[in-house]
């Protein structure tokens, strides 16, 4: 399955591309590097022509992996109750569940942008199914995840309107601590901001999304209570509670803090190209997150390839491409 060319009917993407100041340079040019508006427009066209070559991919793989991982994860619970896992199996199950919680956000991210199957496609239901299943391990309804993520794209690094702005921190270790602190009751962090933004939207879609998340979290807490009451507290903690905590922190560090630090604003400044110490895959392939913000239709697994194709034209517009 291919995603197809850049969808010009995508209102959010169109707004980002045509926003006032959209032709502004990423970094100030030196005095002898002056570019007039026509030159910038030409560079932007060259950039978009290259980017459109990467709006394709075997997107069905995201859906297949999501369904497979979800079924394996769910099967761990009855196996644990029946005593078939054992200590080693339970430990391995915890590792697998943590992987599902953290890396499940990658297919959900593609589904948020309807990249797996676009709206109107006969298999669009698979796009939505992927989104809903992949966020269950972190107990975040797909509707809330999608709506807040669209706000993030629209208002990236805006202190008041970006739902992920509260993840900002001056350095990596404080960012890790903040991923945990922001989830604590009463803290004005990501959880409180998401709740407030959903309430402020007050649309049929936002109300449905809140209801979905509420029901999902009731199921989660019901599972916690039921298994703990039945003598399987350790099992449910290792198969859901702990993986969820680690997964949420992993997601917020690599998707919110690392690519957006130090939270500047501007088409080429609100995210960055960086080199992760833990490597490309450990960082959830976020080293090239700038490409995603410029062209959300380019799937995660093609952003590195797209960056290298775009590297020259981005550099000519003042973007710091030195990390790779």
TrEMBL record:
Enzyme class: oxidoreductase
Domain Fatty acid desaturase: 90-319
GO biological process, one term: lipid biosynthetic process
Residue spans crossing the bilayer: 60-82, 88-106, 215-242
InterPro entries for this protein: FA_desaturase_dom (IPR005804), Fatty_acid_desaturase (IPR012171)
EC number: 1.14.19.-
Tagged with keyword Membrane: yes
UniProt entry keywords in alphabetical sequence: Membrane, Oxidoreductase, Transmembrane, Transmembrane helix
Gene Ontology molecular functions: oxidoreductase activity, acting on paired donors, with oxidation of a pair of donors resulting in the reduction of molecular oxygen to two molecules of water
One Gene Ontology term, aspect cellular component: membrane
Signal peptide: none
Domain of life the protein comes from: Bacteria
PANTHER family: DELTA(5) FATTY ACID DESATURASE C-RELATED, FATTY ACID DESATURASE 2
Protein's recorded name: Fatty acid desaturase
């Amino acid at each position: 399955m291919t995603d197809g060319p850049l969808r010009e009917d995508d209102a959010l993407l169109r707004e980002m591309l045509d926003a006032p100041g959209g032709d502004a340079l990423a970094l100030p040019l030196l005095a002898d590097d002056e570019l007039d508006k026509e030159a910038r427009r030409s560079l932007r066209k060259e950039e978009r022509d290259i980017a459109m070559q990467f709006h394709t991919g075997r997107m069905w793989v995201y859906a297949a992996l999501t369904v497979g991982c979800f079924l394996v994860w769910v099967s761990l619970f009855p196996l644990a109750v029946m005593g078939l896992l054992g200590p080693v199996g339970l430990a391995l199950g915890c590792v697998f569940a943590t992987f599902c919680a953290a890396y499940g956000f990658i297919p959900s991210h593609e589904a948020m942008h309807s990249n797996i199957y676009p709206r109107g496609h006969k298999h669009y239901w698979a796009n939505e199914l992927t989104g809903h299943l992949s966020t269950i391990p972190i107990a975040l309804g797909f509707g809330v995840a999608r709506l807040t993520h669209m706000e993030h794209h629209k208002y990236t690094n805006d202190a008041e309107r970006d739902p992920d702005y509260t993840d900002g921190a001056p350095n990596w270790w404080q960012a890790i601590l903040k991923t945990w602190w922001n989830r604590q009751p009463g803290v004005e962090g990501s959880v409180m901001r998401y709740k407030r933004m959903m309430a402020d939207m007050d649309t049929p879609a936002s109300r449905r999304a809140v209801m979905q998340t509420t029901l999902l979290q009731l199921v989660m807490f019901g599972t916690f209570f039921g298994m703990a009451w039945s003598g399987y507290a350790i099992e449910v903690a290792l198969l859901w509670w702990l993986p969820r905590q680690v997964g949420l922190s992993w997601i917020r560090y690599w998707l919110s803090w690392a690519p957006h630090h130090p939270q500047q604003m501007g088409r080429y400044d609100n995210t960055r190209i960086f080199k992760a110490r833990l490597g490309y895959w450990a960082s959830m392939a976020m080293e090239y997150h700038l490409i995603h913000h410029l062209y959300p239709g380019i799937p995660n697994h093609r952003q590195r390839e797209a960056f290298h194709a775009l590297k020259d034209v981005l550099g000519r517009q003042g973007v710091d491409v030195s990390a790779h």
